[in-house]
Every structure is written in C-alpha cells, then in structure tokens.
Amino acid sequence: MPESAEPVRRTSWVAGPSRRRVIGSTAGAGLGLAAGALPQVAHAAAPPLLGTYDIVVIGSGAAGMTAALTAAKQGLSCVVVEKAGTFGGSAARSGAGIWIPNNSVILAAGVPDTPAKAAAYLAAVVGNDVPADRQKAFLDHGPAMLSFVMANSPLRFRWMEGYSDYYPDLPGGLPGGRSIEPDQLDGNILGAELARLNPAYLSTPAGMVVFSADYKWLALTAVSAKGLAVATECLARGTKAALLGQKPLTMGQSLAAGLRAGLLAADVPVWLGTPLTELYVEGGAVTGAVVTKNGSPGLVRARRGVIVGSGGFEHNAAMRGQYQEAPIGTAWTVGAKENTGDGIRAGQVVGGALGLMDDAWWGPAIPLPDQPWFCLAERTLPGGLFVNAAGARFVNEAAPYSDVVHTMYERDTPGASHIPAWLIVDQNYRNRYLFKDVAPTLPFPQAWYDSGAVHKAWTLDALAGSIGVPAGALRTTVDRFNSLARQGDDVDFGRGDSAYDHYYTDPSIQPNSCLAPLWLPPYYAFRIVPGDLGTKGGLVTDAKGRVLRGDGSVIRGLYAAGNASAAVMGRSYAGAGSTIGPAMTFGYVAAMHVAGRL
C-alpha cells in the first residue's frame, strides 16, 4: 500500500513550494539592474580580435546550430564557438525525440493536431510557470522552424507513432503523440568532419540501423513477434547501408550531423575547442564574446547579437550544490560532460536573471560503473516495482520520468528515504526483456554487482538484507503488488491508467500490459537515483529569445536558447522531445529576431 491511506492517481506532478522551488526562485533575486544599464564588466585590455561577425553563437548543440543555420540563411555572417573538441553537445548523445505540435511531418502522417489543441495542452501542462507569450512563441514558430531546417539541411523526420504525449488526458493531449525523430542519414556527407561528431550515449548494435521508436520493440524481441520483426528490419537496414557503402546515422547522431551539414553548406565556421570566457560589453550592450582559442584569449565581435546555446550546468558540482536539493551531483547525469554552465554564468555576470535553476530534465537512473543508465523501458515493463528505504512502494513507476524523480525528492526525508530507491524484478522479467544492452537470460556484468548498482538474491528476504530494507515490508509490498498485477488494476498508484504508461510495456500481458507479478527467483534490485538529461534552469528570456534582467528589461545584444535558458516547459514535460523541440525553436526565433524577421 502507498504510505498514504488514500489511493494516489496523479496525471501530473503537483506540489506546494518545496525547498528546491524556494532555492530556485530566490537564486535570481537581486540580479535585476536598472533598465537599459549593464554592469561594467572589467576588461583589463581588449584581447586580440579573432574576427567580427553579425552573430556569434555559443555552443554547437541543437539550439546553437539551428540558430547559426537560421542566421546564415537570413544573409547574416555567423560563427559558432564550441567548448568541446566535438560538435553536437547533448543532442548528439540523445535519442533526438522532438516535440513540436502541428509540424508538417505529423500533419502529413494524419495526426489530428490543431493549434487550439496544442495551446490548450501546453497551457495545462506548464501552468503559470511560463508566460503565455513564450508558450505561444514556441507553438507559433516551431512548425516554421522545422520546415526551415528541412529546406536548408539534409535532415528529414519521422513520426514516432504511438509515443503518447506525457499527459494525454489533459485538454488537447494526444494519446498517439506529437513526437518526431530524425530519419536515417548517411554520415559520408560530412566527410572528415564526421570524426568530430560527439558520440552517442548508447551505441547502436553492430550491423543494425535503429531508430528511437524501435527500442520499445527491441526490448521485447524474445517474447513478441513484432519485436522480432522490428529487429529483423533494423538488421536489414544495416545490411543495405553496408552494401551501399554508407555510414548510417539515426537519433541524435543524425540530428547533429544533419545540422552540421547545413552549416557546412552555408559556409558557417564552427570553432571547436574554443570555450567561452565572458561576454563582451560596450555601450550598454553585449557586442561580443571573449573565448579561448588555441590556448589564448581572443575577442569575437558581434555586430548584431550573441546567442548563448551552451547547454546547462549538469556537470558543475558547485552550481548544482548551490541551486539544487541534496542529494545531487554530477555523476548521475547523461548530459554532455562539457556542460558546466559557462554561458549561464556569463549571462548572469552581465545582469541576466535566472529561473528554474532548482529543476532538471529528471529521470530515474541506475548508477552503473561506466556511466548512469537512464531508465525508460526498464522501469515500465511488467514485473518490476520501485520501493523506498522502508521497502514500500511510493509511485507509479510508468509515470513520466520527470514526475517520478520529482516524487522521489518531494518524499525524501531523513525518516523516509527515497534516494536511492530500488527497482525490484524477478528472473521471469529477466528471461523476457532486454535490460539496457544485456539480452534476456544473459548475466549482468560483474562490475554492476561490484559497484553496488545491482543486487541479486534467491529470496526476497535475502535481497532485502542486501539492499538494507526491512524484509517483512518488502515481502508485504511485493505481495500487494502481485495481487494488483493479477487483477490488472493498480488502485494504489494508477499504473496503466494513462496511455503514456503503456508505451514501454509488453502487449502480450493482459489485462494490464504494465503489470505482472514477481514469482520466479532469483530476484534483482537496481539502485535508482535522480538522474537527468540535463538541467532545465538558466537565463530568463522573452518570447523573442532575448535575455532579461530581474526587472523584466531586455539586455541588448544577448539571446539564449536550449538548456542555457529557463525552459519553456517550466517544471513539467509535455512529451518526448520537450528539450530539443524548444531548443531548436528558440534558436531559430532568436536568429530571426536578430535578422529583423520577427
């Protein structure tokens, strides 16, 4: 039973002001300056001039490259400066889901979207956390951005059919989903530049071409005819690509490579290994960026504006400790390792207000020894449940991943620890489903056990002892869960009530594809921590992408997009791709505004 005697059936995360909210909302207090003024940033002496462009873009992720491509196609000169030695940032590592309502790809596929539905849904999801004009800007300009990208790069996109909006029961929500992903791209179009593409978070199986939408079926290959068919199709794509001499790219690799190809065709330089040091201020406006290039500082002047698309601060331990609730750290994120908040801090120095700094694009993660594993299918497939330190279940495990972590933090107290939590499964689960990249029935790497990320025992009592939870409570929780699974109705937490809950599940399990009892030893426990895809707090911007002071006035010449800005999604998550879709859209919006087109 849940800790509260009242059944919990949530469709969205709703809570009063937590300590994280208080910290986050006060973090930007006092940053506002008098309208029209910028702090006097001390420049001991102007560093050597590296070049002058109409627009300087900081960061080569989805936001930055979309901004640069847009600027170039509006006839503006542009340069992209990138801290890493590779391009693509976190976008290149991702599955590259993109959430943009009413785009041409989903409309052509017959998705029954309308502007009214999208506006109602986004407003219901975001609430009052984000101004209505910013929400409207995203919805108005997202479809145009996507059409622009397809017209000016080799990128094409596919509808992720059936990947539900995360709250499909809210007004305007679509159970069939609005998310898209990049189509297959041949990496040969980049030539030698392909070697500088940031690697994927998870390598595609050798010889296969896999889309994000395929993974839900690949997890079921051992138990589903559809799963086997999809695996066969992935192999056929890989074989065809090999015969044609292609270097097939999908997901984030395709997205980053396609945008980079667009920049190459538009003659936009991308300076790798060139971190931002500070923003340059003259005459009350941001007029450039001081960077370190080839080991030496230099100034890149911007005639019209600087667009910051440098990502979040997920790998900055000091910033996470300052703004976010403990326990927190840099070891649980899957964001690009170079994301240490450089652009956010530079914007703050020149007076930019900050918002949502306490929040992130959360998701339950297993801290494996090489890197954290962000759990999608694993926590949703039937035959598994989450328990806290008291051995009690506390959440709908199949809920949107950000909501699960919000719940972990909200309920985590010294007397009732929810961090870490534990995912409990049995051997029946292991016999049926892929787990990360470990095929059904195969043993997990010993390093997983040695690190404490995974525990295994032949009885629930022994497993409880191994992970330090009360044995009687764990047995009672599993017994209760099993009874709910057999009847197919999770009256405690509503797992399976939403169409979203069923995306990463096993359709052969009835009456509820989310639920199956645990009965076959040995049993496994996976350590669950609050992982993230990146932080979602940053510089506060307006509907044009301009950075604002605390008093709401505009900092001339300074724009931000992507995870360097406070997210248009507020504290929620509308659907798969709610990070990348807005990042690309506001990169486009910022560049169009600089060009005088918006």
Automatic annotation (TrEMBL):
Its cofactor is FAD. This is 3-oxosteroid 1-dehydrogenase. InterPro entries: FAD-dep_OxRdtase_2_FAD-bd, FAD-oxidoreductase_2, FAD/NAD-bd_sf, Succ_DH/fumarate_Rdtase_cat_sf, TAT_signal. The lineage of its organism: Bacteria, Bacillati, Actinomycetota, Actinomycetes, Kitasatosporales. Keywords: FAD, Flavoprotein, Oxidoreductase. The keyword Oxidoreductase applies. Residues 54-580 form the FAD-dependent oxidoreductase 2 FAD-binding domain. Gene3D superfamilies: FAD/NAD(P)-binding domain.
